[in-house]
Amino acid sequence: MKFGIFFELSVPQPLGHADEIQAYQDALEQSRLADELGFTTAWAVEHHFLQEYSHCSAPEVFLTAVAMSTSRLRVGHGGVVCVPQINHPVRVAERAAALDILSGGRLEVGTARASTITELGGFMADPDSTKMSWDEYIDVLPRMWTEERVRYDGTTFTLPERPVVPKPVQDPHPPLWVTVTSPGTERDAADRGIGCLGVAAAGFKEQERRTGEYRKRIQQCDPAGRAVNDQVATMNYLFCHEDDATASRIGGTMFNAFGMLNSQLLWAREVYPTPAYRSLGNLAPGGVDLVRDDDPAARRPVPEGVAIGDPDRIVKAIKIWESMGVDAINFLLNTANLVPQDQVLASMRLFAAEVMPHFATGGN
Amino acid sequence: MLSGTADPEAMAASAPYVAAPATEPLVCHGAELLQIVYQIDGHARQEVLPPALHPVNPPVIIVSVLRAAESDAGPFTLAETRVVCRSGARGRGFHVSDFIDGEEAARLLARRWGYRARPAAVALRLRYHGAAAEVRADGRLLLDARLLDPVPLAPADLRFTDSMHLARTPRGSRLIQVERAYDVTAAQRGRPVLAAFEAAGWGEPRLRPSHPISAVSLTGDVVFRPVRYLCRADVSASEGTERLDHA
């Protein structure tokens, strides 16, 4: 079992420069501590225009800073948006290769396609075609990293023959992942031989189904890259404290706040009906005739398996994830600076001291 | 997280009085719907919502026109404008106002579901090459909405947003959660055009449509469901939600 940290870089409203700077500086300090404590990877999302929820719009810059201030921690895009209007594939390949060089071969490349109209509409991207463009990126990125010259005639973009430089350090190239929020994306990952990077906190049952489906299908994959990445990672929340009630109080506040911010996003599907977004991104999917958004007072309960509690409780939860075949868990550590930084760091230290030893970890 | 800043009592002064929210559904057979989603200027996104509701980013409105060929309240055509928002964690549309062609339905929807119904000539025309809707009242063109370049959609591609209607009730000012169920037989998505939208005529001059997002038309059956929830307009949904006894 590997343990990572996952950054959305949420910032409280009303927005102030100091809060934004604090979110970035706290995240860098958390990354340095994670490096010391044996966490494996620091992941950063890519979101645009999502005030409060995520101010991580230039993850390649943030991840470069993380890489430059750590020595063993891997750095991961969780994930880079594979939509031509937002990131041209050549720029994705170039930036990733440069970051892989600068980090000494510590880059993981998660891929995504954005799911809010705030982002897609802001770049005038066509929601109908993001699955197509994602698929084309998955095909062409490994070629750009490994072939001297690349030409590509595609549906969502075309590239006349060019030498894409530089090339990454890792041989044959950095591991590829896809962020998984919608049911079915694990099948897309398995069929292409890329890692399954869960970015929505799934329950035990859903994760077991997802992992089983992935493991079964990847046996017969047609790899998009030059190497198969067959890892399954899930997202979780972390607040570890000696006193379980204190952990629940502080961590539960962070958990619920993140859920509320997430529910405020304007999902593509909500205002732009399309088969490309039949599920609601990070929200629970379902058919229109079956799902009713009922009681507006209802709060999202902290589901089973969330790593909020004392060390014993967290060990038990992670054992269950481990038994399902999950290879890695990536933790959100804070929401909108709600938890004071000293408490976040203390939680990480306690987790490393009391929880990590219960698991065989690949470490960093 | 941002909340609305409008004064709910001032807003409620012109709202309908709902003595008893609907306990029975209003079933509309053979219904047609045109729904246009537009981004609006963001300057007033908090000011047009009561404190119970949260704005989304970017702010958008849903303008819809529903024609019910057959219903328990007779045939009617209803045009309404809503501001997309959140009630707690739930997606909702805050009802701004509506115009309706059909007297009996107008009375029923106002008295039982809190529609701010005003009489008008409301027209909806669904065709294979697109759809168009118009609202005219007192000689003014209040709405000219069109769907162009239609492409077919599956019913499973659609998602509908329930509404929050501010009304005066025996409990005081309340947001009535209005839920509609859809049994869709055919649906199309196309390019939206709001050729005319007279915001002042709709009762909220600060709504300035600025950028098109989507247009959908559909045919099927639509049911206005019995009311299950009321919410205070001055506090958050977690504090102010009231479940009705009959629900």
Please characterize this protein's 3D structure:
The complex is a heterodimer of chains A (364) and B (247). Chain A is α/β, with parallel strands linked by helices and 364 residues long. Helix content of chain A is 39%, strand content 16%. Chain A contains eleven helices and eleven strands. Chain A has helices at 17-37, 59-68, 89-102, 117-122, 130-146, 185-192, 204-218, 244-263, 268-271, 311-323, 341-355; strands at 2-7, 41-44, 74-81, 107-112, 150-153, 158-162, 176-180, 195-198, 232-240, 307-309, 328-332. Chain A has an eight-stranded parallel barrel, surrounded by eight helices. By secondary structure, chain B is mainly β. Chain B has helices spanning 8-12, 103-113, 199-202, 237-240, and strands spanning 26-40, 54-55, 60-71, 76-87, 90-101, 117-119, 121-127, 130-137, 140-153, 162-169, 172-178, 180-197, 209-224, 229-232, 241-243. The mean pLDDT of chain B is 96. Chain A binds chain B through residues 13, 49-52, 117-118, 121, 259-261, 263-266, 269-275, 278, 280, 287-289, 292-300, and chain B through 1-2, 37, 39, 54, 56-58, 60, 62, 84, 86-92, 153-162, 177, 179, 181-184, 187, 189, 211, 213-214, 216, 228-229, 231, 237-241, 243.
Structural descriptors:
heterodimer, A: 364 residues, alpha/beta, eight-stranded parallel barrel, two-stranded antiparallel ribbon, 11 helices, 11 strands, B: 247 residues, mainly beta, 15-stranded mixed sheet, 4 helices
